[in-house]
Write a sequence for this structure.
């Protein structure tokens, strides 16, 4: 199968690599062409000068870029992926973007007799590198069934959650939940340390009960060691939360905890931690 992958950031680079290693014929495009050449040298796939060229003759084209405008720039227009994708081809957008742009791309694809899924991912850089991402999907059942064998090369779980835009809405829920969990963990670790407890022993104990979480299992050690130069960046989290806030305002939904945590992330940015992992909320307490 010929597929295209557009966007070789910390997520897209390994995701595209999994496809090539699985035996698919992958053509990549990246706005920084040197990154595409580096990927090709590492994995052996092809490169293209435009998204349209990458998607030409492909059954499926995947996109994983930064935000709504980035998606539009690589998908729409004469050099965009949709222009190159053949009739009946399937465009899958892995970018965390708005539900609005997902519906816009779905309509654009339908006009051109092509198919679309919005499919944001969760699991971070490690999940992408290890091929164990979770994918939240919006679109049609037949398109999801067609895409699943390909997505399974870098996902451990995916689910169709409704029509176009539903994947992006689910990703907003994901980020809202993460924000509260990480802040709770940061407060708990800071409290335990200040109380003179053996924090490692406390976490070992409470992680086996109702307080346990993915964040606790995977981030408490790096948080205690004050190490944040990895993982999902604070800048990206604030971008994602901003998308959720805009959607919440449309629906007259309050997100008081998420907004508070977002303000804490702004403090982390002001500390120079825009590229620190989201678990760096603890630094607000320990680096004062």
């Amino acid at each position: 199968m010929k597929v295209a992958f557009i966007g070789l950031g910390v997520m897209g680079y390994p995701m595209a690599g999994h496809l090539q290693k699985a035996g698919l014929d992958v053509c990549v495009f990246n706005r920084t062409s040197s990154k595409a050449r580096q990927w090709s040298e590492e994995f052996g796939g092809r490169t293209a000068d435009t998204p349209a060229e990458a998607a030409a003759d492909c059954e499926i084209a995947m996109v994983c870029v930064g935000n709504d405008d980035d998606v539009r720039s690589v998908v729409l227009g004469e050099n965009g992926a949709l222009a190159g994708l053949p009739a009946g081809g399937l465009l899958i957008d892995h970018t965390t973007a708005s539900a609005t742009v997902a519906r816009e791309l779905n309509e654009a694809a339908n006009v051109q007799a092509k198919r679309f899924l919005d499919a944001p991912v969760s699991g971070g850089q490690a999940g992408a590198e290890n091929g164990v991402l979770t994918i939240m999907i919006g679109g049609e059942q037949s398109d999801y069934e067609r895409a699943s064998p390909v997505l399974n090369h870098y996902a451990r779980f995916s689910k169709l959650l409704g029509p176009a835009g539903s994947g992006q809405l689910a990703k907003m829920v994901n980020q809202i939940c993460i924000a509260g969990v990480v802040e709770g963990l940061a407060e708990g670790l800071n409290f335990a340390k200040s109380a003179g407890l053996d924090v490692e022993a406390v976490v070992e104990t409470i992680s086996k009960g109702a307080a346990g979480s993915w964040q606790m299992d995977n981030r408490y050690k790096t948080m205690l060691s004050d190490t944040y130069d990895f993982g999902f960046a604070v800048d990206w989290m604030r971008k994602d939360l901003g998308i959720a806030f805009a959607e919440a305002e449309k629906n007259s939904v309050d997100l008081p905890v998420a907004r508070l945590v977002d303000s804490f992330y702004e403090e982390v940015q002001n500390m120079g931690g825009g590229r620190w992992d989201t678990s760096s909320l603890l630094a607000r307490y320990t680096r004062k």
